[in-house]
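1st attempt posting a full record on here, be nice pls
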Amino acid sequence: MKTIKTTIEKILLGSIALSCLINAVWLILIPGENIGSVFFISIKRIALLGLILLPLLAWVASITSHGRKLFRKYEKNLTQAGRIFSWVFLPAAILYFIEPAARFRLQFSPAIWLRLLPVVSNTTWMILIWIGLVSISRRPESETNKNQANREIFIDFTRGIAILLAVGSHIFYAFGYAQIFGNADVWVKALTRLATPTFVLITGMMFEMVYYQRIQKSGFRSASRSLVLRAWQCYLAFGAAVFVEWFNQHLSNKNALLAMVFLSKSLFSEILLFYVLFLLLGISILALRHKFGIKTVVILPMLVWVGNLFLNLVHWPAKDTPISNLTALLFGKPAISNFSVWHALTFMAFGMLLGYFLKQKQPAQTKSRFQLVLLGLLALNIVVTLISVHPMPWRELLFHFSNDYRSNHSIVYYSMGSSGALILVWLFWRIRTKLDQPLLNSTILPLGLNSLLAFAIGNSLSALFPSIDAHPFNVLRFILIVIGGTIILIHLNNQLVSLAR
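the predicted structure (as tokens):
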């Protein structure tokens, strides 16, 4: 094993020299600066050559006795600087590589872009090599394995599937469901619409299994700080998504600024604003749960839908006013937002009930009680759906579920959405012992374990890449780029995080 590790390190180190030399020659051969018959290299190009050769010079210096001592002395500081630089440079490099085919607000001329290409390519490759070398030398513990020790793997797997459904729905929407799937579009659209109910239901499970347990162990203040921090992270992720959409000219200056204060929509990331409000409201829900017990959670869905009758009597702002975006996010009124904090308490309550029975102290009874409660909730929601829509045909029901039931926050959307989310949770709970597979640990599980980052990256990539026609091959290629790029960037981020330990 040590021999293999040493061989890999030598290959990576050798690739530093090879990459620097290849990109230096590439930069020199790029035409554009000639004086008569004598080839002329400008000061700017010499500076770019210096940037390309800098990693090679640093490596040569590090293998000398003095350089080795110096690098060891400042290893921690250099690693920290490298992490910060990598986090800043890699997203910028993605924007740079996409720029010729995009509509960015900042555009390079073709000549400048071509001259910068060897520099950006070489720097990106150096970062990847550096991450690989440090990771091999430190052998950080797998992020997935560490989390699996204290978490239910089926929950993270279900959340990973929900990420795929959410990002997929945005891609299919951009290309057009009907253009891709033809007559089967309503079935596919209804399936992807299960992403939000599943997310929120699992969030409810986390409220009970993580945050409520933290209240019991460390006090209410500790759990509140964690929820506020998570809400702040959602807001920052939303800000990054809005910046990408603004930078790619999907949002105007005015709409981008209004979106940041909850008064306008983003392209694909409005759910992040919903989560900011939802997590902050969760503090009050947990306070009631702590004071009055699990019965608070049981009656919560009934309070939501009784309260909805009174919400219908309120005179809400007009749809074309900025404040209507905030009231729509909070209460689903007027019907201009697909997300409503008030109505989504239904999903959260079901999730908290599942979390309560999943974490009972009697392991022998936990499985049967959890499954019994899950199937009971499923039966309840199916009955509510059938009573509300009978005798509507399936295709028509799925169409309404995916469109107007969702935007109007009909009880049918929440009963059908809960049913779909419960089926997904139950399915992956049943096969939970078979989910710990190397392929799944490298693909779907990282999406679930890093759901906020995965959602932000996936939607940002969807907004960045240029639009193409809806030919099946193009759609498949687009999906593979977005999903594959998301998974790769999550792994890189986890490696960078591990370097701080």
